[in-house]
Amino acid sequence: MRIISGEYKGRKITAPKKLPVRPTTDMAKEALFNIINNQYYFDSITVLDLFSGTGNISYEFASRGTQQITCVDQDYGCIKFINETAKSFNMPLQTIKSDVFKFLEKTTQKATIIFADPPYDFSLELFAKIPELVFNNDLLEAQGTLIVEHSKHTDLSSLKNYSYSKSYGGNMFSFFEIEENTTLEEE
User: Fold this and answer.
1) Is the pLDDT of residue 76 over 80?
2) Residue 14 domain flag
3) Is the pTM of this model over 0.85?
4) Which residues cross the membrane (predicted)?
5) Measured by CB atoms within 10 angstroms of the end CB, which terminus of the chain is less buried, N or C?
6) What range does the domain containing 75 cover?
């Protein structure tokens, strides 16, 4: 995998083969960051990277100037690899070794962007639990976005707070946003 843009553009990162991961492809990552780039200033957002695996997405945010990035993964090898990589690049990543669902149940940490890349073989019920916990626990900042990566064979459009999806090859990103509860009063 490589960092696509920013301070560390072009740097290659090689994760140990033994890690239980499926990094986001460069093509899908580039498309995702083009969308994010049109909505946010990277140096003024906070990011929560769930099921962070190799840290691929977090490195991209850090390379583009994001200073507050938290990576959550339950695998010790993944957390160790992220810590080592972040240290070698001097990136401001914080890591938390935890089951993502338990973390979401207990945390009060808000983020502008919450990115989740769970295993593609999750059931729809497990996928649904991610936005449910994020929105029920008020973890998104105002104007924030939850992005869930999944297989093109999984449809998350029926979930609460779903906004839209984008497909890139076999990868799909579903975007979830806080629903505006504004009603116009007629006079």
Assistant:
1) yes
2) no
3) yes
4) none
5) C
6) 26-35+45-151+164-177
